[in-house]
Structure formats: structure tokens, C-alpha cells
């Protein structure tokens, strides 16, 4: 393994929070008479919350509140679900120890806002592992654009070719490859066969496989 920097996505990688986003989006828009389906949520997985809301507002012009208000309501609901139900994904403690043991810098680069990133690392008790927490909140463009990964690496003083990204979404994999970084994809089992993950350098069932695959 020649990587100097490991960059973790958050939702669906560190914590099983993708269901929380679906619950929040579907519930809040159902109150407005809009049926957001699981497939629609999957299509926008990994994107910034405000960009997701912009998409729904454009699709359903009768919606009466602003993008900012819907985004805040969704984030509030996700924050509450993280506090109530948040649990670390299998293999993440072992993967963090693996990278730390090899002297790697360890970063978070997430589409979520800093409020939620901080809530997750504290809820899971893993803040100590991370050198940098970086959010798409600081970026004009979210995933699938590479900006969040590029700027996280720049903050760490890392060359993209020395970075490996751990992602669970198609948009995240596209973003990492566009940043010229290596990618480990760990899709949800229901999305494992999606061909978008064929562009990843590795496709795993669980983070438990990371040490073995990188020590080959």
C-alpha cells in the first residue's frame, strides 16, 4: 500500500445514515403532497442537500417553501435520527486503525454540512482518528464534481495520486475518479451490482475487507 492519505465519505460509509436521508426527504415532501420514491433518493445519493432540494423544487413547482427552508428541515430531521439511531458501519473502526497504523492522514470529505459531520464523529466516538473534516458546504459544486475531494487533499497537503477514497455512492465514486484519486466503493447490498461502481479501483461488501485488499 503506497497511499499516504485516506479520505472517507461519511453518509453510508462511516454511519448507516442514508436511510435517515430517505426518511427525512420522503416525510417532509409527503407533507407537501409530493411522493419522493426510493429510486429518486438513490439517484441523488451523495449530492449536497441543497442541490437535492433544488432538484425536487424544480420538479414540483407547486412547493411553497424555499430551498433553504426545506434543506434546513431535512437536516434537522437527519440530525435527530443520527442522535437517536446512529451506529458505526461494520469494519470502520478496524479500517481507521489500519490507516492510522500505517501513518496515513485520515480525512472526511462529505456532502453533508459541518453540523452533521461533527454530530456523526462525536456520536460514533471516532473524532480522534481524523486530521481534517471537510464539507461540501465550502464548495460551490458538490459531488459528482471532484471539488470536495480536491480541496480536502489540498488542506492535507496531499497529492491526489497518493489518496484513496472510501465511498458508497455512484456520485461519490465519479467525484473521486474525477479528482484523479483511487477509490474503494462499498455500495449498499441493494445497489451493489450498479455498473457505476465498475469504475472504482476496488468494490467491497464491507469496510472489514479494506486491510486485506490493500495489503495484497
Short structural description:
With 216 residues, this protein is an alpha/beta fold. Helices cover 44% and strands 12% of the residues.
Number of strands: 6
Helical residue percent band: 40-55%
Low-pLDDT windows of residues = none
| Main sheet record | 6 strands, parallel
Note the gap between the termini. Answer: 8 Å
What percent strand?
5-15%
Strand pairing plus helix content: what structural class?
alpha/beta
Q: Provide a count of the helices.
A: 9
Radius of gyration: 17 Å
Choose one word for the global shape. globular
**Largest sheet strand order:** 3-2-1-4-5-6
Mean pLDDT: 93
Oligomer: single chain
H and E order: EHHHHHEHEHEHEEH
Top keywords for this entry?
44% helix, 6 strands, 216 residues, six-stranded parallel β-sheet, alpha/beta, 9 helices
Please give the structural blueprint.
Elements lengths: L4 E4 L9 H13 L7 H6 L5 H11 L7 H19 L6 H10 L3 E6 L3 H11 L7 E4 L11 H10 L6 E5 L2 H9 L3 E4 L16 E2 L6 H5 L2
Parallel strand pairs: 1-2, 1-4, 2-3, 4-5, 5-6
Structural overview:
The structure is a single chain. This protein is α/β, with parallel strands linked by helices. 44% of the residues lie in helices and 12% in strands. It has nine helices and six strands; from the N terminus they run E-H-H-H-H-H-E-H-E-H-E-H-E-E-H. A six-stranded parallel sheet has the order 3-2-1-4-5-6, with helices on both faces. Helix 6 (114-124) links the parallel strand 2 (105-110) and strand 3 (132-135). It is globular, with a radius of gyration of 17 Å. The model has no long low-confidence stretch (mean pLDDT 93).
Amino acid at each position: 500500500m503506497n497511499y499516504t492519505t485516506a479520505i472517507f465519505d461519511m453518509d453510508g460509509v462511516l454511519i448507516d445514515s442514508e436511510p435517515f436521508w430517505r426518511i427525512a426527504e420522503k416525510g417532509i415532501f409527503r407533507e407537501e403532497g409530493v411522493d419522493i420514491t426510493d429510486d429518486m433518493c438513490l439517484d441523488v445519493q451523495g449530492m449536497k442537500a441543497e442541490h437535492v432540494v433544488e432538484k425536487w423544487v424544480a420538479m414540483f413547482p407547486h412547493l411553497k417553501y424555499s430551498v433553504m427552508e426545506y434543506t434546513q428541515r431535512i437536516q434537522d430531521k437527519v440530525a435527530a435520527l443520527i442522535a437517536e439511531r446512529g451506529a458505526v458501519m461494520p469494519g470502520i473502526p478496524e479500517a481507521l486503525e489500519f490507516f492510522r497504523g500505517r501513518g496515513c492522514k485520515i480525512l472526511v470529505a462529505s456532502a453533508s454540512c459541518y453540523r452533521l459531520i461533527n454530530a456523526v464523529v462525536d456520536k460514533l466516538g471516532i473524532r480522534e482518528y481524523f486530521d481534517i473534516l471537510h464539507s461540501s458546504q465550502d464548495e460551490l459544486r458538490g459531488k459528482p464534481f471532484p471539488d470536495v475531494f480536491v480541496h480536502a487533499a489540498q488542506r492535507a497537503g496531499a497529492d491526489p495520486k497518493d489518496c484513496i477514497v472510501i465511498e458508497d455512492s455512484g456520485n461519490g465514486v465519479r467525484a473521486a475518479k474525477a479528482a484523479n484519486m483511487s477509490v474503494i466503493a462499498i455500495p449498499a447490498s441493494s445497489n451493489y451490482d450498479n455498473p457505476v461502481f465498475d469504475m472504482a479501483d476496488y468494490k467491497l461488501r464491507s469496510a472489514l475487507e479494506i486491510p486485506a485488499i490493500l495489503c495484497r
